[in-house]
Amino acid sequence: MNFDFSDDQKYLKEQARKFLSEQSSMAVVRTILNDDTKSHDAKLWQAIADMGWLGAAIPEAYGGLGLGELELCVLAEEMGRSLAPVPWASTVYFFAEALKIAGSEAQKQALLPGVADGSVIGCVAASEGPGEPRAAHLTTRFDGSSVSGTKLPVADGDCATHALVLVRDETCGGAASLVIVDLRGAGVSAKSVKTFDPTRSHASITFDKAPAHVLGEAGDGEALLSRIYDRAAVLVSFEQIGGSQACLEMATDYAKGRYAFSRQIGSFQAIKHKLADMYVALEIARSNAYYGAWALSTDAPELPLAAAAARIAGCEAYYLASKENIQTHGGMGFTWEVDCHLYYRRAKLLALQAGAPALWKEKLVRRLELRNAA
Amino acid sequence: MDFNDTPEEAAFRQRAQAFLAAHAEPKSAQKESLQKRLSDKEYMLAAKAYQKAKAENGFAGITWPKEQGGQGLAPIFSVIFGQEEGKYDAPAGPFTIGLGMCVPTVIAFATDAQKARHVGPALRGEEIWCQLFSEPSAGSDVAGLKTRAVRDGDDWVINGQKVWTSGAHYSDWGIVLVRTNPDKAKHKGLSMFFIDMKSPGIEVRPIHQMSGGSNFNEVYFTDVRVPHAQMLGGEGNGWSVALVTLMNERLAVGGSPGPDYKEIFDWARTMPGMEGGSLAEDAAFRQKVADWYVRAEGYKLAKFRTMTALSKGQTPGPESSIGKIITANQLQDITHNAMEAMDHFGIITDAAHAPAEGVFQQSHMWAAGLRIAGGTDEILKNIIAERILGLPGDVRVDKDVAFKDLPSGR
Ligand SMILES: Cc1cc2nc3c(=O)[nH]c(=O)nc-3n(C[C@H](O)[C@H](O)[C@H](O)COP(=O)(O)OP(=O)(O)OC[C@H]3O[C@@H](n4cnc5c(N)ncnc54)[C@H](O)[C@@H]3O)c2cc1C
Predict the structure, then answer these.
(1) Residue scoring higher pLDDT (B252 or A175)
(2) Domains identified in chain B and CATH numbers
(3) SUPFAM superfamilies per the record (chain A) (predicted)?
(4) From the CA of B189, how far away is ligand 1's center (Å)?
């Protein structure tokens, strides 16, 4: 058995950590946090493009590096750890992966090279209100050539150039389709909305007869989105373990240096056990994430179940780590200046984007039943 | 056992209801809170007017002695008023610490003349008090504080820094715990003063908290003079005086600090669920509501038992410590679940779009602070383990050593 990343992949990870600790320092993250008018750090975005990361898992024929999903997982962990304020997840995990699995040759030719060089920023516009977006309730419509309706919230919707929009498709009896819209074209207006995690921007996008073309098969939108989410869930789970790891290190470090009652607070079992709980949750999440990475990179039939497990464990580990990191820091943890809250915010965002855990738990059990029946 | 109000209590409750209906707005999920609608200045004026009205109508200092301007009533009446006030968006926040913790300490230890000067204005909302205990290196271990007071004639001269002082920026007076003798063991070298927050040498700097606002402050003392006469409880007795304050804190905090099982369940009827109906119909969600109900009710009923003990003249024991462990963690859990139930939409905090005006998102931030303020979860559990269950305390290295010789970290 060899259930680990290769030396090359580990080297890539080391390089990524070094690069991000310089280019996406907390000062960089905070610039975006503190500035409502900035959607992302454009300089960092370009630097990441120049490193080739945006096209890491895009075939060379479309301008990418032609590495695999495992390399993407390694990068995702470091991006999650650094809280990089760029539309990376939307573009790479959702948009590019969707094109890879469902795009026509023409769509791939037109968009993937732009993703790889940083000029195309992608996003997913599915939500229209509270709760899981469902075909039966969609009000955004597609008439065969254009889209009308409002999507809210759209992660990175205010800086994206292209959106994957979940629509009610009137050309196939109101079933859902996924369509691609060029957001720079006619009939699109995006407005920023405030969210729990200001380090990542969100928008409300209104389409008014915006030209659009279908991704994959018309009427297959819900199933396709589910497949896209399975892939993205694995990648997001790597961001979650990266973030959890950062919280655990921060808390451990603080517990060693902070004294109360003339002792290091880490000498109190209440704190030791808290950190040990964080560690256990993280190791469970990491192991599930690795299995998801294997399933993703080999396109294994186990992917749907593995992705659900990675997602649920990732959400749980990051929430726990981010809130108990605050708690370990006491009053300091509740201040704006200390970075604890940045992880508390990001943990929530990652848990809500791509479907909340409750949905995934239901999916997981259904998939388990399917497997058992087979 | 009998949960009905006695005739006397029922009459008081009616009076309280009438007063509140005339002076405050009922809480409403549909409406932005008073604090959010008003500017800080306007809110403070509203709060002072409200406190004045309470005093004029006999609802301030309900349990305080009559000779101090209080109502001289049993604690149950204070609880009844609290129950009724909790249904309203009443601007009582700025007075919680002062009237709940600081002024009772003054009443317990100050001279008659001092009480005559200070208690009335506090009760009428004319003067606000803050509590200056915590320091950068002394929070849970507040007796480890370093702010020094040195005797100079009839005065003491204070130098040092306090932190996390809620409301220092709008307070007129404060009670401050300082070290008057670093050669004694840590608990023995402390003294308590009350102090004019406008004294020369006091500088208040707001702390930007993670939720965005600034409710608390750093307070710097540079050669601040305070008259010896303003020492409470005598030199070297600061720790026992502080325990009186902190005992009151345990009683003051622990009400419902935000949306609870009822609010989330009402709201869930308007949210789409996973099974085709509303969220309130989802089986998994209903199980959680049941858990939240049991904890909230259990805590409420535990308070009734404390009240019963109080009305029999017993002092509430450390069991009142369970309150904040329950309420703060429940708040974090409920708001977490509410946000997750909204799916991606739950990330929105824009009041224009966010369900329930974003109260769940805001409270999710606040809950993290509540688990720390006024004694962390861990410290409260230690108190339960050691003082209720009688378990042996942690090995202490700081008990019998001169304060100046103790190790300290960052
Ligand atoms: C919103 C808010 C409002 C506040 N308002 C006021 C105020 O008005 N006046 C005031 O004086 N203070 C105030 N405080 C300060 C508050 O009382 C302290 O922050 C709190 O007591 C914790 O102290 P600390 O921040 O120094 O954390 P630390 O004591 O350094 O604690 C760090 C971590 O170590 C743990 N720990 C410490 N000792 C032990 C132990 N013996 N066993 C196990 N674990 C331990 C803690 O639980 C925590 O997780 C406020 C704090 C907040 C967040």
Answers:
(1) A175
(2) 7-91 (no CATH), 130-242 (2.40.110.10), 254-372 (1.20.140.10)
(3) Acyl-CoA dehydrogenase C-terminal domain-like (SSF47203), Acyl-CoA dehydrogenase NM domain-like (SSF56645)
(4) 21
Asked if the model's pLDDT at residue B351 lies above 60, the reply is yes
CB contact under 8 A, B364 and A348: yes
In chain A, the domains with their CATH numbers are: 7-120 (1.10.540.10), 123-219 (2.40.110.10), 222-373 (1.20.140.10)
Q: Which band of pLDDT confidence, cut at 50, 70 and 90, is reported for residue B369? A: very high
Q: Given a cut of 90, is residue A204 above it in pLDDT?
A: yes
- Residues 6 or more apart whose Cβ sits within 8 Å of residue B297: none
Q: Which of B134, B346, B408 is facing A331, going by the closest CB pair? A: B134
CA distance B8 to B13: 9
Mutate to test the interface with A, among B347, B394, B401, B403 (most CBs of A within 10 A): B347
Pocket residue to mutate for ligand 1, from B99, B140, B397, most atoms within 8 A of Cβ: B140
This model's pTM is above 0.90: yes
Residue window 58-87, chain A: list those with CB within 8 Å of chain B: none
User: Can you tell me the distance from the alpha carbon of B131 to that of B135, in angstroms, rounded to the nearest whole number?
Assistant: 12
Chain A, 255-314: which have a CB under 8 Å from a chain B CB?
A: 257-264, 268, 270-271, 274
Which of A194, A271, A272, A322 to mutate to test binding with chain B, by most B CBs within 10 Å of its CB? A194
The pLDDT value given to residue A190: 97
The two beta strands, B216-227 and B173-179, are unpaired
Ligand 1 atom nearest to CA at B168: 8
Is B353–A152 a contact, with Cβ atoms under 8 angstroms apart? yes
CA distances from A182 to A40, A107, A162, A199 (A): 19, 12, 5, 24
The proportion of chain B whose per-residue pLDDT surpasses 70, expressed as a percent, equals 95
Q: How far apart are the first and last CA of chain B?
A: 52
Could you tell me if A135 lies within 8 Å of chain B, comparing CB atoms? no
Q: Is the pLDDT of residue B168 over 70?
A: yes
Amino acid B249: pLDDT: 64
